[in-house]
Structures are given as structure tokens and as C-alpha cells.
Amino acid sequence: MDDRDWLAGQFETHRAHLRAVAYRMLGSLSEADDAVQESWLRLSRTDASEVQNLGGWLTTVVARVCLDMLRSRTSRREEPLDRGVPERIASRADESDPEHEALLADAVGLALLVVLETLAPAERLAFVLHDMFAVPFAEIAPIVGRSPSAARQLASRARRRVHGGRDRTGTRDGVATEPQADLSGQRDVIDAFLAAARGGDFAALLAVLDPDVVLHFDRMGRVGGAALPAGAPREIHGAAAVARRAVIGRARAAQAALINGAVGVIVAPRGRLLMVLDFTIARGKIVAIDAIADPERLRQLDLAVFDA
């Protein structure tokens, strides 16, 4: 066996781990495979005799490749948060593939991948490597070009978003909102809103909306993933008008989630995060809805999707 065959054999022992790292980083199996292949190309051009910890070296390399790919995504303004990810890992009942089964057993849920898509590239890398693969911050720091303490802060910020841990104030635009400890009460209101919207139940929608409710669209001018008509108002006032808009959308791709620690709604058809609905609830009624589709605003939110 020559040196290249030996090196290829060593690489294969790490492939499943590298693919799992890349999948968590990218949310796409095809892109994960590309990142793993690039790590092999870089290894094949390296003097492996100088690498003391091959597994650690390869993890660092694939992480750098994934970071470059994530940054490339965010630099192309047409792609952030509106691309066809995440991809579920489908089982293969008709074939035996140990590498695939290892990845399947260690896969990330679709809900978590949706939240990971809202993180900045460096935050995602720090969180994935440290919290999911126990890579020390001292090793993460040079990958993201930060100090170990700064890398720790990146992971901490990402963790808060993943778990929806940031506090909310008790007022919004001078309106006292529901206490944040009463998440179950918020969830009941939002679930009733979604059920009515999906079923086209106009009367049920009116029952959960304050008579003076306001629906505000951000600068993207989108709702339910569809563009608003040219010249359409940025705000809709009144329960009847808001209910008609909600019925039109039917909320088929919407699901309840924690938005900055309070219950709201994400719209993510086929795993593509398009929009967040941030609700203000007072006295058991929805008094305001902020429809957010601007990628920059979405990245500033702490999102945690409820389990099905």
C-alpha cells in the first residue's frame, strides 16, 4: 500500500464525522458532500506526516470550508434565508450504507436547522463546533479569526437564539403585554389564530383579534411568502381587515415558535425561512402583528421552533 492509499484509508475513517459537521453547518447534504470533498483535496496536497491529530486537522479544515460557503451565501443578497434548505435526511430501507446510517442517527431536526439558518456564519460555526461536537474555544478562535473569549461569546449569542432565551419587555408601544411567564396562554392565542387562518374561519379570527389590531409589514412588502401588490399599504388596521388578510394566506406553512422569548409564528415552507410574525398580546387578544421578512431583521431575532 502506497502513502496515498494509506492516507485515503485514514480519511475514510473520518468521513462520516466530517459529513455530520458539514451538514450541521450548511443544512444541505449536497453542500456537505462538497465541503468534505474539498477537505480531502486539501489533505491530499498536504504533508500528512506533519499532522499530529488528523481528525482534529480535518475538522478544522471542513469547518473553514463551510464558513467560507456560509459567508459566500450571505454576500449574495438574493440568497440569504430564502434558499432551499434545510434538507431532511431520508432513510434508506433498501440499502446498507454505514456512513449514511451514522449521519442519520446523529441528524439535526428540521426545526433546529431552520433556527440555525438565522445565525451569522461565525455564530453558527462557534455553536455547532462547541455545543454539538465539543471543540474547545481555543481551537474555534483561529477559524473565525477571534480570541477564545470572543468565540465563546459567539456561541453564547447563538445559543440564546437557538433556545429563545432573550427576555421581552412587558410593554410595546405603550401597551401592556401578557406576562412572559404565561407562555401557555400566549400559545393558546397563537394556536387559535393559526387554526382559524388555516381553516378560513373568519369569525374565529375576529374572536382572537383586538378590534383595533394593527398588522405591519416590513420593507420587504411580503406576507405568507407572497409579494404584496404594488402600492399596497404597509399597515392594515382593524380586526376585519387583518382577518381577511390572514384568511387569504391560510397560514399553511406557518407554525408557532418562540420569538425573542415570546410566542409568535414562523413561515418556513419546505424549511425555507421566509417570514416571522411577531405578536403583541394583551388581555387574551392580539393587538399588533409585525410581519418581518427582511433578512437582516430576521437575523437579529432569537428563534426557537416548538417541537411538533
Task: Tell me what you see in this structure.
- The structure is a single chain.
- This protein is an alpha+beta fold and 308 residues long.
- The protein has two domains: 116 residues, no CATH class; 135 residues, Nuclear Transport Factor 2, Chain: A, CATH 3.10.450.
- The protein is built from twelve helices and eleven strands.
- The chain has a seven-stranded mixed sheet with strand order 6-3-10-9-8-7-11, with helices on both faces.
- Strand 7 and strand 8 form a beta hairpin.
- The longest helix has 24 residues.
- It is elongated and about 75 Å long.
- It starts with a helix and ends with a strand.
- About 18% of the residues have low confidence.
Main attributes of the structure:
Nuclear Transport Factor 2, Chain: A; 308 residues; elongated; alpha+beta; single chain; 11 strands
Brief summary of the model shown:
With 308 residues, this protein is α+β, with helices and mostly antiparallel strands. It has helices spanning 3-26, 29-44, 54-75, 98-105, 110-116, 121-133, 137-144, 148-163, 183-199, 202-208, 239-249, 295-299; strands spanning 171-172, 175-176, 209-217, 222-223, 226-227, 235-237, 254-259, 262-267, 275-282, 285-292, 303-305. The protein is built from 12 helices and 11 strands.
Record the SSE blueprint.
Layout: H1 3-26, H2 29-44, H3 54-75, H4 98-105, H5 110-116, H6 121-133, H7 137-144, H8 148-163, E1 171-172, E2 175-176, H9 183-199, H10 202-208, E3 209-217, E4 222-223, E5 226-227, E6 235-237, H11 239-249, E7 254-259, E8 262-267, E9 275-282, E10 285-292, H12 295-299, E11 303-305
Parallel strand pairs: 3-10
Antiparallel strand pairs: 1-2, 3-6, 4-5, 7-8, 7-11, 8-9, 9-10
